[in-house]
Amino acid sequence: MRKEGRPECSGTPLFEDLDFPCTDTSLFFDSSTPIARLQGELIWRRPQEICPSPTLFPTNISLAHAKQGLLGDCWFLCACSFLLKNQQLLNKVLPPDQPQWGNGRYRGSFQFRFWQQGDWTEVTIDDRLPCIGSALCFSRCHSPSAFWVALLEKAYAKLHGSYEHLWAGQVAEALVDLTGGVAERWSLGDIGSEEERKTEQDSDQVGRKKLDLSLLSHVKNDCALSCSTHTSPGELGEMGQYHALIVMEWEDVKKVSGSEVRLLRIRNPWGRCCWGGAWTQSGAGWRSLDPDYAAHLKSRLAEGEFWLDETEFMSQFDDITVGYPITEEGHLKSLCTGNLLSHQHHLASRWIKGFSAGGCRNSSSYSSNPKFWLKVCERGEVLISLLQYRKWRNSTKYAQTPQEDSKNMKHQHYRAIALHMWKVEKKRFSLNRMLNKVPCASTHCHAYEREVILHRQLDPGYYLLIPSTYQPGAETRFLIRVFSTSSTSFSALKNPAPSLPPTADGEWETTYFRGSWVEGKTAGGSRNFLSYGQNPCFFFTVCNEPAVTSGVNVKVTLHQIRPDTDLHPIGFHVFKVPRGKSEQTIIRDQDPVASCVPHCYTQDVSLACTLPPGCYTVVPSTYQPDCSSNFTLSLARRIHRKVVQSQERLGKVIQEVSHISVMKN
Q: Which residues does UniProt mark as catalytic (predicted)?
């Protein structure tokens, strides 16, 4: 890796980003992609070393569109093109008035912002860019003197950990990161067999299984559109598999015969035309139109663009990604109606193994998933987004270490997630009875996607929302966002979720407690300290069941209610309570029968154990005395009777017929 000379401005050294240096660590992750062959061949240059008069944007805005280089990030470049249609969003991502080349305040750095998990994250980079010789290696603008695309790509690579991390992705994810909005991916394939269509009748995605562009007529000029291929269709064979393109516009055109044809103008991020259908420059399709209007349509084409009709579009592409329009005030517009979704709420939460990762509705622990209240004040459109946080493959300032690996790359970063919603007649209700009813709405299945969407017209009233992963015990953070045309309120259910049983079979009874360690009163610290007896105690019993001869499985989970950045080391002990003994005597004189130690700096600690019948007390503690915090304690005891097994499994669609979820492959 070579670095060229360092131009200076007024004698002041230009900024060099030590967090994202000009080394292989910024370019490569595991060298598993084709760019690995570039190791040792790249030179990092600043724009003024590449061309004599660099600028962020060209005077001719049509030359500002992205042109893909050697990096497989067409998905990201398709999202970038949407910024050119919305100046407000462009200014959000790339704050204006930053000093550029030739300006006395220029110092070789640029600031960008990306939407991440509910907030805009600022990323600062230097303007040294990877080149082969004197030409940019990766993405660039069609204008050779414009550098906004190359710099934005570098900032996004820094956010992800390296350029190589940008190889392959979803357009929907990039759209959300660049807009803070919502994007959906719809299939362009066939709906399926008659049996599948019947199964889909209760699915949230039925009406969108096969896209009709007329549904988007309300927002056709404001939304972001991208189409992609997963295979190598005949007319687009040059592109190979997994390529994303931009839908620039579509228009219903009258033929000389009087009939209409819908034409779509497509832009290839590669910057060259790859289409050989009826609407190429000399294609037969143009002869069916008025010659003057045909010439007018052809004149709209820029480099890398081509026209095709709707029939060709539906047959050549596999899916389309649609980004919701966003107004200057930051409000979403409905894709179906164009209505303004002016009311917004969002809440962050997490699925925690042993506490709130209850899995899908097949599992008896489903009710332990996080739960949310949605109050709709008047009838209107409601859009609900469940967005899980990505499990990053690397560790940097911006990225996190993964919790586990997967053999399937598609599933490596995400859990299979879904969202179910029940209408509740009153706020006080039986949860178990409610969950036995059919949800009023749900996402179509548990999907390995970063974000799943639920869109409904809702009547006034209360609604219970339960997000879930398919597998019990699958941990990750998530964000729920609610957008609506009418006034709504949104809150998390205050009751703590019960813990999960240590095994999947049988039924479990869960009791949960709230408590607090208060400095000088109930924050006694660990057993190393004489004040240990001041800690709160929680009594429970294990009953003697005739069918059980070897004890009862018990699982205790302690959850401290503190920010992740300010956790106490926590743990707990379980003591048996003989008749006639006080708790202080027991804690002082007896050894625990079970312990969850050493104390750990974590949100939750849990212990599964087998206890014989009798009376017990759990004593939770921090390691040091006088460490204040609120906490919850959940206790799961196994009940020895069988439960009904349901049949939910991963697949295309879901049909709710009872509390059992049935899914057809």
A: 74, 243, 268
Shared-domain flag, residues 489 and 369: yes
The distance of Cα 579 from the centroid of its chain, to the nearest Å, equals 53
Strands 43-45 and 2-3: parallel
How do residues 524-535 score in pLDDT, each as one tens digit? Answer: 999 888 899 999
Q: How far is CA 251 from CA 65, 218, 261, 472, in A?
A: 21, 13, 8, 48
Domain of 81, in residue numbers: 2-177
Domain count, the chain: 4
Let me know whether 517 and 476 are in one domain.
Answer: no
- In Å, the largest CA–CA distance within the chain is 101
Same domain, 208 and 311: yes
Single out the catalytic residue among 65, 86, 141, 268.
268
- Kindly report, residue by residue over 640-653, the tens digit of the pLDDT: 654 444 455 554 43
Query: Model-level pTM greater than 0.85?
Result: no
Is position 74 annotated as part of the catalytic site?
yes
pLDDT above 80 (res 412): no
- Its sign, for the CA torsion 581, 587, 591, 593, is positive
Pairing of strands 552-561, 629-639: antiparallel
User: What's the half-sphere exposure (Cβ side, CA atoms, 13 Å) at 248?
Assistant: 19
What tens digit of pLDDT does each residue of 259-293 get?
999 999 999 998 877 777 889 888 899 999 999 99
Distance CA 654, CA 664 (A): 7
Helix (H, G, I), strand (E, B) or coil at 207: helix
CB atoms within 10 A of CB 529: 16
End-to-end alpha-carbon separation of the chain, Å? 50
Distance CA 131, CA 142 (A): 16
Residue type present at position 300: R
User: Which domain-ending residue is among 177, 193, 211?
Assistant: 177
Q: Choosing from 22, 65, 74, 445, which is the catalytic residue? A: 74
Q: What is the DSSP string of 619-639?
A: EEEESSTT--EEEEEEEEEEE
Cα–Cα distance between 148 and 57 in angstroms, integer? 6
262: Cβ–Cβ under 8 A, 6 or more apart, which residues?
213, 250, 251, 252, 253, 309, 310
Which of the listed residues 462, 494, 526 is the one where a domain comes to its end?
Answer: 494
Residue 499 lies in a domain: no
Interior angle at CA 447, CA 446 and CA 452, nearest 5: 95
* CA–CA dist 183, 488 (Å, integer): 22
Domain harbouring 554, CATH code: 2.60.120.380
Work out the angle between the directed axes of helices 148-160 and 74-83 (0-180°, nearest 10).
120
> Is residue 140 located within the same domain as residue 271?
no
DSSP labels for 412-432?
Answer: SS---EEEEEEEESSSS--HH
Residue of 65, 142, 160, 243 marked active site: 243
Strand-pairing partners, residue 326, are 332
DSSP 107-152: -SEEEEEEEETTEEEEEEEES-EEEETTEESS-EESSTTB-HHHHH
Residues in CB range of 424: below 8 A, 6 or more apart: 434, 461, 462, 463, 464
378 and 474 in a common domain: yes
Q: What angle do CA 376, 379, 383 make, to 5 degrees?
A: 65
34 and 172 housed in the same domain: yes
> Does residue 312 sit in the same domain as residue 352?
no
Is residue 97 in some structural domain?
Answer: yes
Whole-angstrom distance, CA of residue 24 vs CA of residue 5? 18
Among 598, 584, 585, smallest CA distance to 534 is for 584
Q: Confidence band (pLDDT; 50, 70, 90) for 210?
A: low
What is the pLDDT averaged over residues 575-603?
Answer: 80
pLDDT band at 309 (very low <50, low <70, confident <90, very high): very high
